[in-house]
Amino acid sequence: MSLARRKLLQLIGLLGAPTVFLLVFFFGPLLIMLVYSLLTPGLYGGVDWIFSHLNYGRILGWADTRYEKFDPVYIAIFLRSLKLAALTVVASLAVCYPAAFWISRMRPGMRDFAIFLVTLPFFVSLIVRLFAWVLILRPTGFLNQGLMGLGLTGAPIEFLYTDFAVILGMTYVFIPFMFLPLYGSIEKLDLAQIEASSDLGATRFQTFRKVILPATLPGIVGGSVITFIPALGNFIVPSVLGGAKVLMIGNLIEQQFLSARNWPFGSALAMLVMSAVLILLIAQFRLAKKEAQS
Amino acid sequence: MKKMHLAATTALTLAPLAASSETLSIYNWGDYINPAVLEAFTEETGVEITLDSYGSNEEMLAKIQAGATGYDIVFPSVHMHDIMFQLGLLAKTDIGASPDFKNIDPQFVRAKTDPDAEYCLPYAWGNVGIVYNKELAGDIKSWDDFFALGDAGKKITLLDDLRETIGIGLIKTGASVNSTDPGEVAAAADYIIDHIAGVTAFTYDSVPQVISGDVAAAHWYVGANLYVSENPETIGYMIPEEGATMYQEDICVLESAPNKDAAKKFLEFYLRPEIAALNVEQQMNGTPNLPAQKLIPVELSSNETIYPPESVMEKLQIFEDLGRDLQLYNSEWTRIKTAQ
């Protein structure tokens, strides 16, 4: 047996199992969804094995039957979800970027403790934490009581069941997702470069724009992508803090699989989300490649 | 009660002798059975009970359809009982032939596919009305009063349930809550959309907010009486005079049940008036068990929102399975949810 051949066999032996695992458990479900999105809904959930393009027609414009009608509302919900997810990314970035700087400058013991605090919420059930936010945001809640006690507002402000509550809730939930990649790139920042920049006469803003920002860009992009994707498909936050009145695409998909018993339409909507995520990932990949080349 | 106590003590002494490995696996709605009922069953029979919960008929069906096995007993609503029968998921129990079945009021054997109760036992029923904050909402009596609160700038909430909420629109526009006419369903959705500005949320979690005064009134279940009994000064529960929906769940044994014998025993156990009454005491809903209705505390049996008079009962509609026509409601529901 030649050396090259043995190396190849070794490689197959090493990577074979994880590859099969990935194919079966990652692409398998995706494939099922894709196939289901092209079938007819079963009477009581599940699918009937009859081809139908109408699930996409309902979203994209050509369906017009008793049960499958085109409605621009689905695209509108999707666009609105994109907007809410993007705002969540911006808000988490605004919170995490300075926080990551601050924590990276702490002395080591404090630093580890601070990072532990960032991940601490994961130890408590998400639902419990969201209901805590309901208690804070509701008209008779802590926030309004505080504002009224300080005389800042006469009547309670509507926080709960608004877009604001949903963005706040998602930001809160996804802060660790944004923080960790950001922290990774900020911690590696070379202080000597910053000093050199100001020695050479750059203003603080110039230093930030020309030195700090490019150096931390991978963390910003990584954190944004990893926050945006789950935020786009989230349905628990809009249902608890948005009062199910702030409908996101995730809620719509959940509705198709449960109360509406329309799995194919739910699958088609899920494929829509998937393609948006895929486009985003390809864009990120291209960006990273360009950066590596330059 | 005394008799039950006696039974419990005998069971306690015998329990160690019985095969302790036997278990009964119950899959029920959250908080939908008095734990004391389950304890009494274990004490008497030595059968250990495990309890899992679900939040909707569809969630339960989806799990069972996806192949979840190991459950013996489920509690579907009547229309889901029909669906599960058609899908061949239910086991024949002949509970209707049990001697104690005479305790059950025959009007509650509702499932069309199971007219002689060969499969399931009627479990409990109730209506879906309005729980309101007395100070904020005043003395409201109807859906009109309810939506007028919203139009006047006070806050109201509706259930996050497509059939219940479109059902209000159907009642208000004079149609059946089981309508399959696209025009009627669209008109019902329009009724809700016309009043959407006052609706602050679609949620199940509204009772605490009605008590705190964050919400003036909420579309909710008869089980709100439990909270009314704890806060009688603050909140009330009522059935709107235009009519409302009612629900009923049945106890069914699954075809895939690992322990059908214990499951049948549980159904027979639940036929006993004192057991059904024990459940109602804590659940505050309706029981189809006639002798049990005489055993429950008078403040429950005389509460007309739990046991409404005949004139009100006539105005309560129960959901039927709509088959494909559920998709009409699905589209209209999305339209309601996106109306601002």
Automatic annotation (TrEMBL), chain A:
- CDD domains linked: TM_PBP2 (cd06261)
Looking up InterPro entries in the UniProt record yields: MetI-like (IPR000515), MetI-like_sf (IPR035906)
Task: Quote the subcellular location field of this record.
Answer: Cell membrane
List membrane-spanning regions: 12-39, 84-103, 115-139, 159-183, 211-229, 265-285
Q: Which UniProt keywords apply?
A: Cell membrane, Membrane, Transmembrane, Transmembrane helix, Transport
Instruction: Name one matching Pfam family.
Output: BPD_transp_1
Q: Lineage of the native species? A: Bacteria, Pseudomonadati, Pseudomonadota, Alphaproteobacteria, Rhodobacterales
Query: Which top-rank group of organisms is this from?
Result: Bacteria
- What's a single GO CC term here? plasma membrane
Membrane topology type, per the record?
A: Multi-pass membrane protein
Report the family membership. Answer: Belongs to the binding-protein-dependent transport system permease family. CysTW subfamily.
Q: What is this protein called?
A: ABC transporter permease
**UniProt GO BP:** transmembrane transport
Q: Which residues form the ABC transmembrane type-1 domain?
A: 78-284
TrEMBL record, chain B:
Coiled-coil portions: none
Question: Per its UniProt record, what InterPro entries does this chain match?
Answer: SBP, Sperm_putr-bd
The record's principal subcellular location, in a coarse class, is: periplasm
Q: Which GO terms describe its biological process?
A: polyamine transport
Q: Which domain of life is it from?
A: Bacteria
A Pfam short name: SBP_bac_8
Which locations, inside or outside the cell, does it occupy?
Periplasm
Keywords tagged on the record: Periplasm, Signal, Transport
- Annotated residues that bind spermidine are located at D161, L162, R163, E164
Q: Which residues form the signal peptide?
A: 1-21
Please report which protein family the annotation says this sequence is part of: Belongs to the bacterial solute-binding protein PotD/PotF family.
Function of the molecule? Required for the activity of the bacterial periplasmic transport system of putrescine.
- The identity of this protein, by name, is Putrescine-binding periplasmic protein
